[in-house]
Known about the structure:
By secondary structure, this protein is of the alpha/beta class. It has a single domain, classed as P-loop containing nucleotide triphosphate hydrolases (Rossmann fold, 3-Layer(aba) Sandwich). The chain contains nine helices and ten strands. The strands form two sheets. Strands 1-6-5-7-4-8-9-10 form an eight-stranded mixed β-sheet, with helices on both faces. A two-stranded antiparallel ribbon has the order 2-3. The two termini are 24 Å apart. The structure holds adenosine-5'-triphosphate and magnesium ion. The site of adenosine-5'-triphosphate (ATP) has 19 residues, from helix 1, strand 9 and helix 7.
Amino acid sequence: xxxxxxxxxxxxxxxxxxxxDRRMGTVPAGPGLVGETVPMGAGPxxxxxxxxxxxxxxxxxxxxxxxxxxxxRTPVLIDxxxxxxxxxxxxxxxxxxGVPVFENCRGTVVATADQLAQIHAPVLIDTAGFRTAxxxxxxxxxxxxxxxxxxxxxxxxxxLDTARAxxxxxxxxxxxxxxxxxxxxxxxxISRHIRAExxxxxxxxxxxxxxxxxxxxxxxLFGATPxxxxxxxxxxxxxAALASEIDSLAIEVEAAA
Length: 257
Ligand SMILES: Nc1ncnc2c1ncn2[C@@H]1O[C@H](COP(=O)(O)OP(=O)(O)OP(=O)(O)O)[C@@H](O)[C@H]1O
Ligand SMILES: [Mg+2]
């Protein structure tokens, strides 16, 4: 049921309702979109997950949400990590450009996401760097799971060990997913190697990489992201390029529906 303005019984930073950008249709299987056709009544719900700590999940989720907010969309963030990284970021001066952040690190995150998807698009869920009930539950409502991975063999191994279990639900359905390389050194051999390794393991990647840039940490000091601090800088451009890749997935979905 859609929440009424100001009545959601959740801890978080509330903003007045904004116009909904809801999509009706079906999501067909496709490259990186594994699984049968499923109904999409609202959303989309994007879950950022890997069971590898420090891979860049919170940075990615907040950067994408702020980008879409600045582009005039109505994104919302759900912080499903008991560490509360997004809640803490939003409590700082720049408050993530006003993107609402709701907190739910329990299995009931599904209901929170479904409610918020009635009035926000997209809904982005940031998960913990370890296995939690909330992460497993979030997988069941994800229209897309994004797996950030650092270009190091150790990170990739842990990611591969955990991702298949994470992406397979008990009913045998697989979540739709894509990987994204984060904290990379531009055009490095290791990035290219890891990209090839992931692709051959059946883990498709976004073309865009989030290069290791000081802009992320500097922006976070103020509760901001690079798109707010330096909208024309390299980091902001990479975030925009990734957002555009994600959007084009949705456009394909809509066109095929
Ligand atoms: N592209 C990047 N360039 C530079 N620093 C980055 C980038 N992405 C993330 N970081 C930094 O790496 C650190 C870890 O990132 P982040 O907190 O987003 O990871 P996480 O996966 O959410 O971690 P956890 O598993 O603990 O929740 C942070 O200090 C963040 O500022
Ligand atoms: Mg985090």
